Amino acid sequence: MNRTTLGRATTTTLTYTIRRDSEDGDGSARFGLIGEEASGTRISTTDPRCVNPLVGRHPQTTRLPHALDCALTTLQPGRPEKVTVQVSLGPECATVVSKLGYWMPEGQALYTGGMLPGPKLTCD
Question: What is the pTM of this model?
Answer without folding.
Answer: 0.86
